[in-house]
Fold this sequence. Notes:
Elements: E1 2-4, E2 16-24, E3 28-31, H1 32-39, H2 43-50, E4 54-57, H3 64-79, E5 86-92, H4 103-111, E6 118-122, H5 128-142, E7 147-154, E8 174-182, E9 189-197, E10 205-206, H6 218-222, E11 229-230, H7 232-254, E12 261-266, H8 271-281, H9 292-295, H10 302-312, E13 321-328, E14 332-339
Parallel strand pairs: 5-6, 5-7, 12-13
Antiparallel strand pairs: 1-9, 2-8, 3-4, 7-8, 9-14, 10-11, 13-14
Amino acid sequence: MITTGIPGKGRTHTGVAVLGTGSYLPARVVSNSEAAAPAGVTGEWIARKTGIVRRRRAGPDQAASDLAVAAGRAALADAGVDPADLALIMVATSTPDSPQPPTASVVADRLGAAPGTAAFDVNAVCSGFVFALTAAERMLGDAAPGYALVVGTDVYSRILDPTDRRTAVLFGDGAGAVVLGPAPAPGRGLLAGRLAGFGADRGLIGVPAGGSRLPASADTLAQGLHWFRMDGRGVREFVETRLPEAVRSFLADAGVTPGDLAGFVPHQANGLLLADLADRLGIPVGRTCTTVEEYGNTGSASIAVTLDRAARAGRFSPGDLVLLAGFGGGMAIGLALLRW
Protein backbone atom coordinates (compact mmCIF):
# COMPACT_ATOMS: atom_id res chain seq x y z
CA MET A 1 0.00 0.00 0.00
CA ILE A 2 1.22 3.49 -0.87
CA THR A 3 -0.18 6.59 0.82
CA THR A 4 0.83 10.12 -0.11
CA GLY A 5 0.03 13.61 1.03
CA ILE A 6 -1.14 12.74 4.56
CA PRO A 7 1.11 13.97 7.41
CA GLY A 8 3.09 11.06 8.76
CA LYS A 9 2.14 8.87 5.80
CA GLY A 10 4.34 10.28 3.02
CA ARG A 11 5.71 13.45 1.48
CA THR A 12 3.48 16.47 2.10
CA HIS A 13 1.38 18.00 -0.65
CA THR A 14 3.27 20.29 -3.00
CA GLY A 15 0.47 22.19 -4.71
CA VAL A 16 -0.36 20.23 -7.87
CA ALA A 17 -3.94 20.68 -9.06
CA VAL A 18 -6.35 19.70 -11.80
CA LEU A 19 -6.28 22.69 -14.14
CA GLY A 20 -8.56 21.32 -16.84
CA THR A 21 -10.70 18.32 -17.71
CA GLY A 22 -11.88 16.72 -20.94
CA SER A 23 -13.65 13.64 -22.22
CA TYR A 24 -14.62 11.91 -25.42
CA LEU A 25 -17.37 9.35 -26.02
CA PRO A 26 -17.74 7.72 -29.44
CA ALA A 27 -20.75 8.72 -31.51
CA ARG A 28 -22.37 5.31 -31.73
CA VAL A 29 -25.02 4.74 -29.05
CA VAL A 30 -25.88 1.15 -28.14
CA SER A 31 -29.22 0.73 -26.42
CA ASN A 32 -30.00 -1.88 -23.81
CA SER A 33 -32.15 -3.78 -26.28
CA GLU A 34 -29.28 -3.99 -28.78
CA ALA A 35 -26.81 -5.19 -26.14
CA ALA A 36 -29.35 -7.58 -24.63
CA ALA A 37 -30.19 -9.70 -27.65
CA PRO A 38 -26.85 -11.54 -28.14
CA ALA A 39 -26.50 -11.98 -24.36
CA GLY A 40 -29.87 -13.69 -24.06
CA VAL A 41 -31.41 -11.11 -21.72
CA THR A 42 -33.79 -8.18 -22.04
CA GLY A 43 -33.19 -4.45 -21.95
CA GLU A 44 -35.36 -4.25 -18.84
CA TRP A 45 -33.18 -6.89 -17.15
CA ILE A 46 -30.04 -4.85 -17.85
CA ALA A 47 -31.56 -1.65 -16.45
CA ARG A 48 -32.86 -3.43 -13.36
CA LYS A 49 -29.60 -5.26 -12.62
CA THR A 50 -27.10 -2.52 -13.50
CA GLY A 51 -28.79 0.87 -13.74
CA ILE A 52 -27.34 1.20 -17.25
CA VAL A 53 -29.59 2.54 -20.01
CA ARG A 54 -27.15 2.87 -22.90
CA ARG A 55 -23.45 2.88 -23.69
CA ARG A 56 -21.13 4.04 -26.51
CA ARG A 57 -19.12 1.95 -28.94
CA ALA A 58 -15.99 3.00 -30.81
CA GLY A 59 -16.11 2.95 -34.59
CA PRO A 60 -14.18 0.30 -36.53
CA ASP A 61 -11.46 2.86 -37.26
CA GLN A 62 -11.09 4.01 -33.63
CA ALA A 63 -8.59 2.64 -31.12
CA ALA A 64 -7.75 3.64 -27.55
CA SER A 65 -5.34 6.34 -28.73
CA ASP A 66 -7.97 8.00 -30.92
CA LEU A 67 -10.30 8.41 -27.97
CA ALA A 68 -7.41 9.52 -25.75
CA VAL A 69 -6.25 12.20 -28.18
CA ALA A 70 -9.75 13.70 -28.38
CA ALA A 71 -10.14 13.74 -24.59
CA GLY A 72 -6.62 15.11 -24.16
CA ARG A 73 -7.26 17.96 -26.57
CA ALA A 74 -10.41 18.90 -24.68
CA ALA A 75 -8.57 18.91 -21.34
CA LEU A 76 -5.67 20.97 -22.70
CA ALA A 77 -8.09 23.51 -24.17
CA ASP A 78 -9.97 23.70 -20.86
CA ALA A 79 -6.70 24.29 -18.98
CA GLY A 80 -5.31 26.71 -21.57
CA VAL A 81 -2.12 24.66 -21.81
CA ASP A 82 -0.20 24.07 -25.03
CA PRO A 83 0.80 20.43 -25.71
CA ALA A 84 4.37 21.62 -26.24
CA ASP A 85 4.47 22.70 -22.58
CA LEU A 86 3.72 19.23 -21.21
CA ALA A 87 6.49 17.55 -19.23
CA LEU A 88 4.64 14.25 -18.87
CA ILE A 89 1.88 12.24 -20.54
CA MET A 90 0.46 9.18 -18.78
CA VAL A 91 -2.20 6.98 -20.33
CA ALA A 92 -4.14 4.55 -18.16
CA THR A 93 -5.57 1.71 -20.25
CA SER A 94 -6.02 -2.04 -20.26
CA THR A 95 -7.00 -2.06 -23.94
CA PRO A 96 -3.95 -0.42 -25.59
CA ASP A 97 -3.68 0.06 -29.33
CA SER A 98 -1.09 -2.73 -29.34
CA PRO A 99 1.29 -4.41 -26.89
CA GLN A 100 4.04 -2.10 -28.15
CA PRO A 101 4.67 0.82 -28.43
CA PRO A 102 2.96 2.43 -25.43
CA THR A 103 -0.32 4.06 -26.38
CA ALA A 104 0.98 7.19 -24.61
CA SER A 105 3.68 7.51 -27.28
CA VAL A 106 1.01 7.62 -29.97
CA VAL A 107 -0.96 10.19 -27.99
CA ALA A 108 2.11 12.37 -27.40
CA ASP A 109 2.98 12.42 -31.09
CA ARG A 110 -0.54 13.17 -32.30
CA LEU A 111 -1.08 15.92 -29.74
CA GLY A 112 2.13 17.64 -30.76
CA ALA A 113 4.04 17.23 -27.52
CA ALA A 114 7.64 18.42 -27.61
CA PRO A 115 10.41 15.91 -28.35
CA GLY A 116 11.66 14.48 -25.08
CA THR A 117 8.29 14.61 -23.31
CA ALA A 118 8.02 11.58 -21.04
CA ALA A 119 5.12 9.37 -22.14
CA PHE A 120 4.15 5.95 -20.82
CA ASP A 121 1.18 3.71 -20.03
CA VAL A 122 -0.24 2.52 -16.71
CA ASN A 123 -2.32 -0.64 -16.42
CA ALA A 124 -4.25 -1.03 -13.19
CA VAL A 125 -7.42 -1.87 -15.14
CA CYS A 126 -10.40 0.16 -13.85
CA SER A 127 -8.30 1.78 -11.10
CA GLY A 128 -5.73 2.91 -13.65
CA PHE A 129 -6.71 6.56 -13.90
CA VAL A 130 -6.34 7.16 -10.15
CA PHE A 131 -3.04 5.27 -10.11
CA ALA A 132 -1.76 7.42 -12.99
CA LEU A 133 -3.10 10.63 -11.45
CA THR A 134 -1.37 9.95 -8.14
CA ALA A 135 1.91 9.02 -9.81
CA ALA A 136 1.85 12.09 -12.07
CA GLU A 137 1.22 14.38 -9.10
CA ARG A 138 4.23 12.92 -7.30
CA MET A 139 6.42 13.30 -10.36
CA LEU A 140 5.46 16.92 -10.91
CA GLY A 141 5.97 17.65 -7.24
CA ASP A 142 9.49 16.23 -7.36
CA ALA A 143 10.50 18.10 -10.53
CA ALA A 144 10.58 21.66 -11.77
CA PRO A 145 7.12 23.22 -12.13
CA GLY A 146 5.41 21.88 -15.21
CA TYR A 147 2.30 20.28 -16.62
CA ALA A 148 1.14 16.71 -17.01
CA LEU A 149 -1.64 15.19 -19.07
CA VAL A 150 -3.27 12.13 -17.50
CA VAL A 151 -5.69 10.15 -19.64
CA GLY A 152 -7.89 7.14 -18.97
CA THR A 153 -9.01 5.38 -22.16
CA ASP A 154 -10.51 2.00 -22.91
CA VAL A 155 -12.16 0.26 -25.86
CA TYR A 156 -13.67 -2.75 -24.14
CA SER A 157 -15.95 -3.51 -27.07
CA ARG A 158 -12.92 -5.11 -28.75
CA ILE A 159 -12.51 -7.76 -26.04
CA LEU A 160 -16.11 -8.50 -25.04
CA ASP A 161 -17.88 -11.76 -25.78
CA PRO A 162 -21.31 -10.46 -26.88
CA THR A 163 -22.98 -13.63 -25.59
CA ASP A 164 -21.62 -13.21 -22.03
CA ARG A 165 -24.28 -11.36 -20.05
CA ARG A 166 -21.86 -10.88 -17.12
CA THR A 167 -19.71 -8.50 -19.19
CA ALA A 168 -21.17 -7.59 -22.57
CA VAL A 169 -24.06 -5.53 -21.17
CA LEU A 170 -21.89 -3.55 -18.74
CA PHE A 171 -19.09 -1.99 -20.74
CA GLY A 172 -18.83 1.01 -23.02
CA ASP A 173 -15.94 2.76 -24.77
CA GLY A 174 -14.62 6.20 -23.87
CA ALA A 175 -11.78 8.41 -22.67
CA GLY A 176 -11.34 11.09 -20.06
CA ALA A 177 -8.40 13.34 -19.25
CA VAL A 178 -7.08 15.95 -16.85
CA VAL A 179 -4.24 18.45 -17.02
CA LEU A 180 -2.19 18.78 -13.84
CA GLY A 181 -0.09 21.79 -12.96
CA PRO A 182 0.69 24.34 -10.24
CA ALA A 183 -2.26 24.87 -7.90
CA PRO A 184 -3.99 28.25 -8.33
CA ALA A 185 -3.99 28.94 -4.58
CA PRO A 186 -2.49 27.51 -1.37
CA GLY A 187 -4.31 24.46 -0.08
CA ARG A 188 -5.87 23.64 -3.45
CA GLY A 189 -5.13 20.60 -5.59
CA LEU A 190 -4.48 16.92 -4.89
CA LEU A 191 -4.30 16.64 -1.12
CA ALA A 192 -3.72 12.92 -0.69
CA GLY A 193 -3.70 9.59 -2.47
CA ARG A 194 -3.72 5.92 -1.53
CA LEU A 195 -2.99 2.97 -3.80
CA ALA A 196 -3.46 -0.66 -2.77
CA GLY A 197 -3.26 -4.04 -4.50
CA PHE A 198 -4.72 -7.45 -3.67
CA GLY A 199 -2.96 -9.88 -5.98
CA ALA A 200 -4.50 -12.97 -4.41
CA ASP A 201 -7.82 -11.86 -5.94
CA ARG A 202 -6.40 -11.32 -9.44
CA GLY A 203 -8.45 -14.19 -10.86
CA LEU A 204 -11.71 -12.27 -10.49
CA ILE A 205 -11.06 -10.21 -13.64
CA GLY A 206 -8.87 -10.83 -16.65
CA VAL A 207 -8.14 -11.69 -20.26
CA PRO A 208 -6.34 -15.06 -20.09
CA ALA A 209 -4.55 -15.14 -23.46
CA GLY A 210 -2.54 -12.80 -25.63
CA GLY A 211 0.46 -12.29 -23.35
CA SER A 212 3.67 -14.21 -22.68
CA ARG A 213 1.89 -16.80 -20.51
CA LEU A 214 -0.56 -17.84 -23.23
CA PRO A 215 0.55 -16.35 -26.55
CA ALA A 216 -2.07 -15.93 -29.24
CA SER A 217 -2.67 -19.12 -31.20
CA ALA A 218 -5.43 -20.84 -33.10
CA ASP A 219 -6.13 -22.86 -29.95
CA THR A 220 -6.48 -19.84 -27.64
CA LEU A 221 -8.77 -18.18 -30.17
CA ALA A 222 -10.90 -21.31 -30.47
CA GLN A 223 -11.25 -21.47 -26.68
CA GLY A 224 -12.31 -17.83 -26.43
CA LEU A 225 -9.38 -17.01 -24.16
CA HIS A 226 -8.98 -13.53 -25.63
CA TRP A 227 -12.34 -12.39 -24.29
CA PHE A 228 -12.59 -10.33 -21.12
CA ARG A 229 -13.89 -12.46 -18.24
CA MET A 230 -15.24 -11.40 -14.86
CA ASP A 231 -16.59 -13.15 -11.78
CA GLY A 232 -19.36 -10.64 -11.11
CA ARG A 233 -20.34 -12.00 -7.72
CA GLY A 234 -16.72 -12.17 -6.60
CA VAL A 235 -16.06 -8.61 -7.72
CA ARG A 236 -19.09 -7.34 -5.85
CA GLU A 237 -17.98 -9.16 -2.70
CA PHE A 238 -14.50 -7.64 -3.09
CA VAL A 239 -15.94 -4.13 -3.41
CA GLU A 240 -18.33 -4.56 -0.50
CA THR A 241 -15.63 -6.06 1.72
CA ARG A 242 -12.56 -3.99 0.83
CA LEU A 243 -13.65 -0.60 -0.45
CA PRO A 244 -15.73 0.89 2.39
CA GLU A 245 -13.01 0.24 4.96
CA ALA A 246 -10.32 1.56 2.61
CA VAL A 247 -12.28 4.78 2.05
CA ARG A 248 -13.09 5.26 5.75
CA SER A 249 -9.45 4.76 6.75
CA PHE A 250 -8.21 7.10 4.02
CA LEU A 251 -10.62 9.89 4.93
CA ALA A 252 -9.93 9.49 8.64
CA ASP A 253 -6.19 9.78 8.09
CA ALA A 254 -6.83 12.92 6.02
CA GLY A 255 -9.02 14.40 8.76
CA VAL A 256 -12.11 14.39 6.53
CA THR A 257 -15.59 12.95 7.08
CA PRO A 258 -17.96 11.76 4.34
CA GLY A 259 -20.17 14.74 5.14
CA ASP A 260 -17.31 17.09 4.25
CA LEU A 261 -17.27 15.86 0.65
CA ALA A 262 -18.92 18.03 -1.97
CA GLY A 263 -18.35 15.37 -4.60
CA PHE A 264 -17.81 11.62 -4.70
CA VAL A 265 -16.60 10.29 -8.06
CA PRO A 266 -16.36 6.49 -7.98
CA HIS A 267 -15.51 4.07 -10.77
CA GLN A 268 -18.71 3.60 -12.75
CA ALA A 269 -18.95 -0.17 -12.44
CA ASN A 270 -22.67 -0.65 -11.87
CA GLY A 271 -25.35 1.85 -10.89
CA LEU A 272 -26.85 -0.32 -8.16
CA LEU A 273 -23.43 -1.05 -6.70
CA LEU A 274 -22.62 2.67 -6.56
CA ALA A 275 -25.86 3.54 -4.78
CA ASP A 276 -25.20 0.83 -2.20
CA LEU A 277 -21.60 1.98 -1.79
CA ALA A 278 -22.57 5.61 -1.18
CA ASP A 279 -25.10 4.47 1.42
CA ARG A 280 -22.55 2.27 3.20
CA LEU A 281 -20.06 5.15 3.32
CA GLY A 282 -22.59 7.72 4.50
CA ILE A 283 -22.08 9.96 1.47
CA PRO A 284 -24.85 12.58 1.55
CA VAL A 285 -27.55 12.13 -1.07
CA GLY A 286 -26.89 14.03 -4.26
CA ARG A 287 -23.11 14.18 -3.91
CA THR A 288 -22.26 11.02 -5.85
CA CYS A 289 -21.41 11.84 -9.47
CA THR A 290 -22.47 9.24 -12.03
CA THR A 291 -22.38 8.67 -15.78
CA VAL A 292 -22.98 4.92 -15.71
CA GLU A 293 -26.58 5.37 -16.87
CA GLU A 294 -25.50 6.96 -20.14
CA TYR A 295 -22.08 5.46 -20.82
CA GLY A 296 -21.91 2.18 -18.90
CA ASN A 297 -18.62 1.01 -17.42
CA THR A 298 -15.84 2.66 -19.46
CA GLY A 299 -13.00 1.01 -17.55
CA SER A 300 -10.05 3.26 -16.74
CA ALA A 301 -11.87 6.15 -18.42
CA SER A 302 -14.90 6.12 -16.14
CA ILE A 303 -13.67 8.34 -13.29
CA ALA A 304 -12.06 10.83 -15.66
CA VAL A 305 -15.18 11.01 -17.84
CA THR A 306 -17.42 11.45 -14.81
CA LEU A 307 -15.14 14.08 -13.29
CA ASP A 308 -15.19 16.04 -16.55
CA ARG A 309 -18.95 15.90 -16.90
CA ALA A 310 -19.44 16.96 -13.28
CA ALA A 311 -16.96 19.83 -13.60
CA ARG A 312 -18.55 21.11 -16.81
CA ALA A 313 -21.98 20.92 -15.19
CA GLY A 314 -20.76 23.19 -12.38
CA ARG A 315 -21.02 20.53 -9.69
CA PHE A 316 -17.89 21.79 -7.87
CA SER A 317 -16.92 25.19 -6.48
CA PRO A 318 -13.41 26.38 -5.56
CA GLY A 319 -12.45 24.88 -2.22
CA ASP A 320 -14.80 21.89 -2.46
CA LEU A 321 -13.48 18.50 -1.36
CA VAL A 322 -13.83 15.80 -4.02
CA LEU A 323 -13.05 12.09 -3.52
CA LEU A 324 -12.08 9.84 -6.43
CA ALA A 325 -12.43 6.10 -5.79
CA GLY A 326 -11.19 3.54 -8.30
CA PHE A 327 -11.46 -0.23 -7.98
CA GLY A 328 -10.97 -3.06 -10.41
CA GLY A 329 -8.82 -5.83 -11.82
CA GLY A 330 -5.62 -6.77 -10.10
CA MET A 331 -7.45 -6.48 -7.77
CA ALA A 332 -6.68 -2.87 -6.96
CA ILE A 333 -8.05 0.18 -5.16
CA GLY A 334 -6.98 3.75 -5.88
CA LEU A 335 -8.19 6.76 -3.87
CA ALA A 336 -7.46 10.46 -4.35
CA LEU A 337 -8.66 13.48 -2.41
CA LEU A 338 -8.81 16.83 -4.20
CA ARG A 339 -9.59 20.32 -3.03
CA TRP A 340 -11.16 21.85 -6.12
